[in-house]
Specification:
Strands 1-2-3-4 form a 4-stranded antiparallel β-sheet, covered by helices on one side. The protein is elongated, with a radius of gyration of 16 Å. The mean pLDDT is 89. The two termini are 25 Å apart. By secondary structure, the chain is of the alpha+beta class.
């Protein structure tokens, strides 16, 4: 089972009687989940969640970094906001 999600190829890999999601990035690198899922549908859904979380994290990180460089927010505020994003998205 595989899918094209926001232009990224996402699929599932069987590991015994469990499943992992796997995303092929445009640079040719494959990212595979560390977690196992009971069904391939669950794995695919969590892979899509990972793509969404990674996109949000990257976009906000870049935006907040630019604000910090321009002096519009302080380094500590930048750090607190990024920690909040990590917590909310259960990212990384």
């Amino acid at each position: 089972m595989s899918d094209n999600y926001y232009g990224l190829k996402i699929g599932v890999v069987a590991v015994g009687n469990r499943w992992r999601w796997q995303v092929l990035l445009p640079i040719g690198v494959t990212v595979t989940s560390n977690q196992h899922y009971l069904t391939c549908e669950q794995a695919l859904s969590q892979g899509k969640f990972w793509i969404n979380a990674e996109g949000v994290f990257s976009a906000l990180d870049l935006w907040l970094f630019e604000l910090c460089n321009r002096g519009e927010i302080q380094q500590q505020e930048y750090g607190r906001l990024m920690q909040s994003v990590l917590h909310v998205t259960r990212h990384r």
